[in-house]
UniProtKB/TrEMBL annotation:
Keyword Magnesium belongs to the record: no
PANTHER family: BIOTIN PROTEIN LIGASE, BIOTIN--PROTEIN LIGASE
CDD domains per the UniProt record, alphabetical: BPL
Protein name: biotin--[biotin carboxyl-carrier protein] ligase
Lineage of the species this protein comes from: Bacteria, Pseudomonadati, Pseudomonadota, Gammaproteobacteria, Pasteurellales
Length: 253
């Protein structure tokens, strides 16, 4: 990030939650999960350098100083009627909207929640849960590449960075936080439905040949986008397969 994050600037403009800013942390998600029952609703953790971040399906992610390593915590009553799998798709949309407000265009989403800029990954989302009756705690982790690419990470997909773009990190964090908090207030009532049509506008692999990789098999076909449950639809000749978030990896071709 070309400009410095300021706790006072951000906190003064938040109407809920507390901001925790660190120079170095193993994982922002882990910090919020560990302290979940003592944090106020909608609190945010950011670290300038993350040394033991986690990606989807247990992958490790080392984030060098300068990236945005961000997590937000939210709790619901444990008996809430929540449909959680599509939530990461909604968070990906919020990341795109927040980056667009910083002037970044040419953004797409690789299902379920990898954000691409000009065909290469620049951001990702990881949602983790913790149940402590009477609450269920959700932590939404977001990583955005704002620094030069680290050689410490071995990535099986093309990766890029927004380094060099004129991004105001304080405004980006504020935008992310306010949009996430408002969405999470409404989500038990709205679910994924209000976001379904918008998500399709950013679908990186819509109508393209893809491979779906599970623990035991590879499925090839044409991506027909998603349904209103956030499931990926794969067409194989005249039949259709449906895949849920968290089960699989998606690749082109």
């Amino acid at each position: 990030m070309n400009k410095a994050l300021s706790t006072s600037v951000i906190q003064s403009q938040l109407t809920m939650g507390q901001l925790y800013l660190f120079d170095e942390l193993n994982s922002t998600n882990e910090y919020l999960l560990t302290n979940c029952n003592t944090l106020s609703q909608g609190s945010v953790c950011i670290t300038k350098k993350q040394t033991a971040g986690r990606g989807r399906r247990g992958r490790n992610w080392i984030a060098p100083k300068g990236n945005l390593n961000y997590s937000l915590i939210w709790s619901y009553p444990i008996n809430s009627n929540l449909i959680l799998p599509p939530l990461s798709l909604v968070v990906a949309l919020i990341v795109i909207e927040s980056l667009q407000q910083q002037g970044i265009q040419d953004l797409t989403i690789k299902w379920p929640n990898d954000i691409y800029h000009k065909g290469k990954k620049v951001a990702g989302v990881l949602i983790e849960l913790k149940t402590m009756p009477p609450h269920i705690y959700l932590v939404m982790g977001i990583g955005i590449n704002l620094a030069p690419i680290s050689k410490e990470n071995t990535i099986d997909q093309p990766v890029s960075t927004l380094f060099g773009y004129d991004i105001n990190p304080n405004q980006l964090v504020l935008c992310l936080t306010k949009k996430l908090q408002q969405m999470l207030i409404n989500y038990p009532q709205t679910g994924f439905k209000p976001y379904f049509s918008l998500w399709k506008n950013y679908d990186l692999f819509l109508q393209k040949e893809v491979s779906i990789i599970t623990d035991t098999q590879i499925y090839k076909g044409i991506s027909q986008g998603i349904n209103e449950q956030g499931e990926l639809i794969l067409q194989q000749q005249n039949s259709f397969l449906y895949f849920s978030v968290g089960e699989v990896s998606l690749r082109k071709g």
